[in-house]
Amino acid sequence: MLRLEGLSKTYKTGDTALADVTLEVPKGQIMGLIGPSGAGKSTLIRCINRLVEPTAGKVMLGDVDLAKLGKGDLRRQRRRIGMIFQEYALVERLTVMENVLSGRLGYVPFWRSFMRKFPADDIQRAYQLLDRVGLMEHADKRADALSGGQRQRVGIARALAQDPELLLVDEPTASLDPKTSRQIMRLLVEICAESGLPAIVNIHDVPLAQQFMQRIVGLRAGRVVFDGPPEHLTQDALTTIYGEEDWNAMRKGDEEQATAEADARDRMAALAQ
């Protein structure tokens, strides 16, 4: 279980990115983070694994306070946290298999990683993960030969190769089309359910969050202003999170996108006749 207590981040400029965030994510729960740009969503995720150093508060992963660890202990504890990035963060010149195996770098001696000689068990596990995310036939392809959705699947497999106790997912669908976005979210939900993995997903797409998340936390100006199940995310709650002007603009944009997609489907149907 992950527990945040009074987590805060203030930059040297005086800007506050997070202010006294306190919440728990129990085993098996998938929690979505929503909020306007600059609300602190990415900062919260990065404070958990200390890619950004918190100013104050606790980050308890089980009985370990990650916020208090020195570099050596932090490096070992980070093995417990799988990270999935918006821009995939793959090594494009390496194969899909090599990218997945990079999830094991924290567990093998340097010489093995340098020579790319991973234990047989790690290789077998990597093949299992590639099969699970639907990429077995692409194992020997270079990462730069894949589509965006395929790259995100590699990122998921790489994170799972760590055998993590927690997944941190930073805008996994921001660069994907609507259909692929739903496929990726469905895959994440299924994998977390299969292994009881808790996950925090920073997601900008509110309807997608409502469809797939078990719990939604809304941030505004670094503070938690909503915490509840998707069905409680009313228009009033969304206005509290985004502000009336921002939420109306976002809703109008969603409606325009839906209209454009419907028009495109109609044109394709007409051409098919």
From TrEMBL:
GO MF annotations, alphabetized: ATP binding
Organism: Lacimonas salitolerans
Pfam families: ABC_tran
Protein's UniProt name: Phosphonate ABC transporter ATP-binding protein
Domain ABC transporter: start-end pairs: 2-246
Disordered: region residues: 253-273
Keyword Translocase part of the UniProt annotation: yes
Keywords for the protein's UniProt record, in alphabetical order: ATP-binding, Cell membrane, Membrane, Nucleotide-binding, Translocase, Transport
SMART domains recorded: AAA
Keyword Chloroplast on entry: no
Record field: compositional bias (Basic and acidic residues): 262-273
